[in-house]
Amino acid sequence: MKAIWNNQIIAESNDTVVIENNHYFPHESINKSFFKPSNTRTTCPWKGEASYYTIAVNGEENPDAAWFYPEVSNLAKGIKNRVAFWKGVQVVSS
Q1: What is this structure's pTM?
Q2: What's the DSSP call for residue 84?
């Protein structure tokens, strides 16, 4: 799977986990040069507290377009150390 935004591959992996129709990529599969930490936090009742990244590619930013769970609940152990995308990020088969 590939995550693409602004015509740039920002993550690529053969090992994604799909939860609620979102592909969660291993943290080590993201191209960290495109990711900036965000102060945004949200809470999911069964996964825990999510943290976000702003994606920056070719001078454009997509605020809070990637999220991850630094600490996952027991129900969400499968997405520990994984990142998912939204806000126009395309996730496609390699």
Answers
A1: 0.95
A2: E
Task: Find where tokens 């291993």 sit.
Answer: 26
Beta bridge partners of 25: 83
Structural domains of the chain in order of their starting residue, each with its CATH number? 2-86 (2.170.150.40)
How would residue 94 be classed by pLDDT, with cut points 50, 70 and 90?
confident
Report the side by side order of strands in the sheet with 35-44: 17-19, 22-26, 82-85, 60-68, 48-57, 35-44
Who's near 10: CB < 8 A, 6+ residues apart? Answer: 3, 4, 30, 31, 34, 35, 55, 57, 85, 89
pLDDT category, 78, cuts 50, 70, 90?
very high
Cα 15 to Cα 56: distance, rounded to the nearest angstrom: 24
